[in-house]
Structures are given as structure tokens and as C-alpha cells.
Specification:
Blueprint: E1 3-6, H1 21-32, E2 38-40, E3 45-52, E4 55-62, H2 70-80, E5 87-93, E6 101-105, H3 113-122, E7 128-133, H4 143-147, H5 153-168, H6 170-174, H7 178-187
Parallel strand pairs: 1-4, 1-5, 5-7
Antiparallel strand pairs: 2-3, 3-4, 6-7
Length: 192
């Protein structure tokens, strides 16, 4: 891994919303490595770096809105010559219960506008995704209202626990032991 991107929307009104769980994760990762953030306008991002096994891994929180996240990812990947296979995108996932985490490589965007933008910009879907479950709204409810609202206290606790569990296994991801990371993350789930 050379780049880890946390998807969300900029601005304090979006900070506590379900759609920003990718940002929550990457901020917690930076904190774990005691990294500081800098606004980097040419990358449309707040950027931080962590050092792991003598290599630098860039962290990006795009300052664009979710549906144009590809602008940030594309600019960073182009500048640092990072391939899609060296990128991990962390995002919210409606199709998983709150607090469930899934790691995978490749695949479609599943209607997620942030992923759609990144796939279009990179012209590839071969990047890794860390999907953090936020659950689905009640049938008939508006999905965009749901993702742009705060999780319930119970869901928020499950999501926070999932972030902590995942950070406990972050070395496996950073060292590209993806199979081992999947096994660790997919068997140790909260919220069930």
C-alpha cells in the first residue's frame, strides 16, 4: 500500500454523518501513527504520511465532495506514480450491518458515487476497498438522507468498535498480507 484514502464530505456539518466513516477511519489511523495533517490544494486533500517498514504511505482525506473524490485520488496517484493496486479506499457501505468490515480488491461501485468517481478517474477498479458497514435505512426511506445523517448511538458504538478492531490488524494490510487481513477482519465482527 502506498496510498490510503478516507472518503467523506468536507465541512463540519458532515463530520458526524454515516457517509464520513471512511474519514473517521483514516483520521484514527493517522492518530495511531501520530501523523499530522496538511491541506494540499494540488491534491484536493488533507494529506498526512505514515512510515511503516521503512516506507512512506500517504493518507488522503479529499476536500472535494464525495461524488468527485476521483479528482484527489487521481492527482495523488499521478504525481507519486501510484498504481491502483497500491491504493486502499475506505468508505461507508450500505449493504453491511453497522460495525461490519469487509476488505476486498476490485469490483464495481455498487452505486457509491465516491467509488464511481475514483474508478472513472483511474480508469481502473483494481484498487482495494475497506468497506465499513453503516446498515440500510428503513424500506421506503431516502438513502441520501440516511447516509447524510448521524448513526444511532448503538450503530455509532459498533462502527467505532469496528474501526478499533481494524486498526489492531492494520499491519497486515500495510504489509499487503491481504488474505490474512481478510481472515482476521471477517471473522472478528461486531454488531451481530
Amino acid at each position: 500500500m502506498r496510498l490510503i484514502v478516507g472518503l467523506g464530505n468536507p465541512g463540519t456539518k458532515y463530520t458526524p454523518t454515516r457517509h464520513n466513516v471512511g474519514v473517521w477511519f483514516v483520521e484514527a489511523l493517522a492518530e495511531q501513527f501520530k501523523s499530522s495533517w496538511q491541506l494540499t490544494t494540488k491534491f484536493h486533500s488533507r494529506m498526512a504520511e505514515i512510515q511503516h517498514s521503512e516506507k512512506i504511505i500517504w493518507l488522503s482525506l479529499p476536500t472535494t465532495y464525495m461524488n468527485v473524490s476521483g479528482q484527489a485520488v487521481g492527482a495523488i496517484a499521478h504525481f507519486y506514480k501510484i498504481t491502483p493496486q497500491q491504493i486502499l479506499v475506505v468508505h461507508d457501505e450500505l449493504d453491511l450491518p453497522a460495525g461490519t468490515v469487509r476488505l476486498k480488491q476490485d469490483g464495481g461501485h455498487g452505486g457509491h458515487n465516491g467509488l464511481r468517481s475514483i474508478i472513472e478517474t483511474l480508469n481502473s477498479a483494481a484498487f482495494y476497498r475497506l468497506r465499513i458497514g453503516i446498515g440500510r435505512p428503513e424500506p421506503g426511506s431516502d438513502v441520501s438522507d440516511y447516509v447524510l445523517s448521524k448513526p444511532s448511538k448503538h450503530d455509532a458504538q459498533n462502527i467505532q468498535q469496528a474501526i478499533e478492531n481494524t486498526l489492531a490488524h492494520i499491519d497486515l494490510i500495510l504489509e499487503n498480507h491481504i488474505g490474512k487481513a481478510m481472515q482476521a477482519l471477517h471473522t472478528n465482527q461486531v454488531g451481530h
